[in-house]
Endonuclease III (Xylanibacillus composti), 226 residues
Amino acid sequence: MNRQQVRTILDTIGEMFPDAHCELNHSNPFELTIAVLLSAQCTDETVNKVTVTLFEKYKSPEDYLAVPLEELEQDIRRIGLYRNKAKNIQALCRILLEQYDGQVPSSHSSLVELPGVGRKTANVVVSNAFGEPAIAVDTHVERVSKRLGLAAWKDSVLEVEKKLMKAVPREEWTLTHHRLIFFGRYHCKAQNPACESCPLLDLCREGKKRMKSKPARNNKAKSGSR
């Protein structure tokens, strides 16, 4: 894919979703870190429903460590993998108090060392909480990048991230991350992408394939109804 095509993609999704942003509710870096940790294999919508009361009860790392693990588990029970996540949250809070004076570190290398914080979570935190350009590759970003040819089908999540970092200007990394998520979440969905109305159809190998197969399916349906 050439530079002009990449620019077309970035400008188009920018026009479609000019207000794309992090949809996880938070008011500081610590809350954001907890919210992103909870969001693994879980929707932002569900996480936001849980954190409404969670962030009222737990304001600091000390608060999470002041209750038994079982109590924290119950507080996040609606979240997938809640037992493991509760354990990671308490372990993370312990490290924040012991090594970082209770504050979330701003460096990517320090963040990925925290329990339950992988590369994607660290990228979200450094970009949204500390203003450091980063591209976090979640399921939406990965799917859209591969469909549009920004990455190869066989690429790992890390390879997708590296290719996006190379193709997208650094100052646009964070915004592009949000816009790709919105594009994947609300337009180029996993099961029912809006190919018919997509302004990027000409650049989308998945969309072209789907549109080619549609007439064939429609003809079968018509012939079967006779």
Observations:
- The chain has one domain: 1-226.
- The two ends are 45 Å apart (CA to CA).
